[in-house]
Design a protein that fits this description.
With about 240 residues, the protein is an all-alpha fold. It has helices at about 1-30, 35-85, 95-100, 100-130, 130-160, 165-175, 175-190, 195-220, 225-245. The protein has one domain (about 1-245). Helix 4 packs antiparallel against helix 8 (about 195-220). The chain is globular. Bound molecules: zinc ion (ZN). Zinc ion (ZN) binds next to helix 4 and helix 5.
Amino acid sequence: MNTVITSTLLGFAVGIIGTGAGGIAAFMLKRPSRRFMGTVLGLAGGLMIAVVCFELLPEAFEMAGLTTGIAGIILGVALVTIIDLLVPDRDFTQRSFRDWGYIRAGIILGLGIAVHNFPEGLAIGSGLAADLRLGLSLALAIGFHNMPEGLAMAMPMMIGGYSKVRVLLATIIAGVPMGFGAFVGMLLGEISPQLVSLCLSFAGGTMLYITCGELIPKSQNVYRGRASAFGIILGIIAGIALSAL
Ligand SMILES: [Zn+2]
C-alpha cells in the first residue's frame, strides 16, 4: 500500500510542479516569440521520443516480450486515436490564437494536456512498479517535458487577459490527472510483471502518438524554421542522456 501512496504522490508532484512551473515561466517571459515557442514544443516532443524509445519500451519488452509490448503500444495508440476523433479539431496553430480567442485556445490546449497527463502518470506508476530507477527517470523526463506544455497553455491565457492566479491555477489543474495515472499504474503494477509491461507499452504508445501527432506538428506550425527542428533534436539528445544516467 505504501508504494501506491508514494507513486501517487510522485505523480501529483511531477504533474503539478511540471505544468505549474511552465505557468510561472509564462509570467516571466511575457510574450515569447513564435520561434521560441516552436523550439520549446519541439524540445518537449524530442525528450518524449527518446525516453519512450530508449527507456520505457525496452523495459516493457524485456519484462514480457515483444508481443505483449507491441500489443500495448497498439492499444495505447488506438485509445488516443479514439479520443482524438471524439474531440473536435483542436489545431488552432494553423490560424492565429486571435482567431480562436486566446482564452479559448489556452483552455482547449490545457484540456488536451490534462487528458494526456493520465497515461504519462500511468508510465510513472508502472515504471516505479517495474524498477525504482526506471520510475524515477521517467518521472524526471516527464516533469521536464511538462514545463513547455504548461508554458504553451499559459501563454494564450495570459495574452487573453487571464489573471496570474487563474493561469497558475489552470496549469496546476492540468497536472492533476498525472497523480491518478501514477496511482492506477502502481496498483496494476503490483498485480503482475505482464501487467506492468502492458501498462508501460500502453503509456508508451499514447506518448508516441501525442508526440508525433501533436507536439511535433504544433512545433512546426508555430514556427516554420529550423529552430523547431533543432529543438526536437536537442530534446532527443537530452532524453538519451537522461536514460543513460
Ligand atoms: Zn505531456
